[in-house]
């Protein structure tokens, strides 16, 4: 697909037609909305193992997302090794302490108060999986020469949304985490300079004692997020 001599357009019939009636579509949309409303970002995980095959399927779902020029400019580093998770936690907490000790603006710190976060990130070692999401600034043809990727933030954002939905569909919980800066993740995971780390997803099963911030249950109503023209 990414060979210089295979860059021509080749059309094929649409392989899948869902063909739902309006009634079926309304039912599906309503049920999916209710299902996704049960998704919560949690910080309290168990150490219950999650089979690798489940993570693989969720990552393949993420990899099916649309992207600029179909370049698929993402890479997912799935980490279950305890030593590596400990390293990631240690280095992430270094950056987090800098943030909470004055690196972040007063306004930003104030905005986080209702969420109840701090520099301590035990979930990074408790949960069975960390998925580190990288955005690929450029790719390489099969002969090693570079090509430019397009709409990289947008494409990676869409794939990340697919991944979070897939994990929820598999009965798993996850937490988005963005320590800043995140360059330490390239070194920890041996990723090239062409890739920019954008997020750590902590993945596993929520503890029975897990809590969520009450404010997190507030979602803007439709009239605040959409307008029909």
Low-pLDDT residue intervals, each spanning 5 or more residues: none
Instruction: Round the Cα radius of gyration to an integer and report it.
Output: 20 Å
Which class do the helix and strand fractions yield?
alpha+beta
Terminal Cα span: 39 Å
Strand content: 15-25%
Order of helices and strands: HHEHHHEEEHEHEH
Characterize this entry briefly:
The protein is α+β, with helices and mostly antiparallel strands.
Task: Report on this structure.
The protein is 38% helix and 15% strand. It has 229 residues and is an alpha+beta fold. Strand 3 (138-140) and strand 4 (146-148) form a beta hairpin. The chain has a four-stranded antiparallel sheet. It has a two-stranded antiparallel sheet with strand order 3-4. The protein is built from eight helices and six strands.
Draw up the topology in text.
Layout: H1 22-36, H2 52-62, E1 74-79, H3 82-103, H4 106-112, H5 123-126, E2 129-136, E3 138-140, E4 146-148, H6 152-169, E5 173-177, H7 184-189, E6 195-204, H8 222-225
Helix pairs in contact: 2-6
Question: Which structural traits does this protein have?
Answer:
alpha+beta; 8 helices; two-stranded antiparallel ribbon; 229 residues; 6 strands
């Amino acid at each position: 697909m990414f060979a210089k001599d295979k860059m021509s357009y080749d059309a094929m019939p649409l392989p899948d037609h869902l063909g739902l009636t309006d009634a079926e579509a309304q039912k599906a949309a309503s049920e999916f909305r209710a299902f996704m409303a049960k998704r919560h970002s949690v910080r309290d995980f168990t150490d219950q193992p999650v089979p690798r095959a489940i993570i693989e399927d969720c990552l393949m779902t993420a990899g099916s997302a649309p992207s600029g020029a179909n370049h698929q400019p993402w890479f997912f580093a799935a980490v279950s090794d305890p030593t590596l998770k400990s390293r990631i936690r240690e280095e992430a907490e270094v950056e987090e302490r800098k943030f909470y000790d004055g690196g972040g603006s007063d306004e930003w710190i104030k905005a986080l108060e209702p969420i109840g976060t701090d520099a301590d990130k035990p979930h990074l070692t408790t949960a069975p999986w960390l998925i580190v999401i990288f955005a690929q600034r450029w790719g390489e043809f099969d002969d090693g020469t570079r090509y430019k990727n397009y709409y990289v933030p947008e494409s990676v954002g869409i794939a990340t949304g697919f991944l979070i939905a897939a994990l929820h569909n598999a009965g798993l919980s996850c937490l988005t985490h963005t320590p800043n800066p995140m360059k330490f993740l390239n070194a920890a995971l041996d990723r090239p300079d062409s890739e920019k780390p954008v997020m750590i997803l902590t993945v596993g099963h929520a503890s029975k004692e897990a809590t969520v911030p009450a404010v997190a249950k507030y979602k803007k109503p439709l009239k605040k997020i959409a307008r029909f023209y």
